[in-house]
């Protein structure tokens, strides 16, 4: 099976609080058309700040030109703030017409009845969904379409590693731990590896912890059920605990969110980071002088199998509370069209959600091509996609993981506790 086919199969089976409140208060999902029959719809997402300035707005301008009776109001902010806004809007019934989605949120939103059934919208709008690379479904209905897909490689600060005497990015766990320890030994505010574990945005468990399991062909599941006490998960947690005890991990992990991780790396304070390709633009923009490279996640020493590559999607959905679902779906259809999806995946340094779209490598950052090579050499891996209450599962694991790192319990006890709480959710 090709990587692309496997990627589709894996997925298919499967911003601050004040700002959030003000954004919710301004929601127009129930706004009527004006006297000229024009409507305004909102699109809440974290994508615009992570793209080159003005490029996403240019796509929206093109949509409005093609659909003169529809105005799109962009509600943009960091990932964590968007999440806060959407969860608050879901609870209040005031979610924006069109929403950017993380696959980990879909189960919760669908169960709350806050997302429209896209399968029904496909039928209502005579939309051919055969060109969609993947769809996130629950009980046979689609609630999220991955617009673009990102791999999460390892980022290395080349100057810091060189200063610490590390001549090349690490390829296995031993090399990674040694490199992180050497960078931390440089002193000052420099650390080897940055690990965000905030329980408010616990996706660090997915992207920065379980990725070590998947990189060596391991799994946190067995026949679709939790299997957190197996040797693969145990080995990964013991490994990270060792790095924590060595002082190789940046301080403040327990309260750090994804954007904090990116800021630490961008400012040159950490040597190594596991992160989305989506942030390459942001890093280049905020620190043009930073010399960094990307590579595949290190695997267990001696592992020669296919490496799992963490991935995430910029997903899109339509609010069930929107009174303009037809217009909202037109925007979804526009973003998933062959031409626009090609443009969006190119500017995002990601892989397209339309099977007929292709990113343009000609003017892309060289790291984009390198990431595609990493992707082709491995297999996409994210076992949280499609799981029930996946966000809560991350948070439950995070709680036990923090206790383990703090020394309040053993690795074995922490994994057993997480296994018990996960099993209750299944």
Automatic annotation (TrEMBL):
Residues 1-33 form the signal peptide. Keywords: Signal. It holds the Pfam family SBP_bac_1. It comes from the Bacteria. PROSITE patterns: PROKAR_LIPOPROTEIN (PS51257). Gene3D superfamilies: Periplasmic binding protein-like II. InterPro entries: Bact_solute-bd_prot1, SBP. The keyword Signal applies. This is Sugar ABC transporter substrate-binding protein. It comes from Schumannella soli. The lineage of its organism: Bacteria, Bacillati, Actinomycetota, Actinomycetes, Micrococcales.
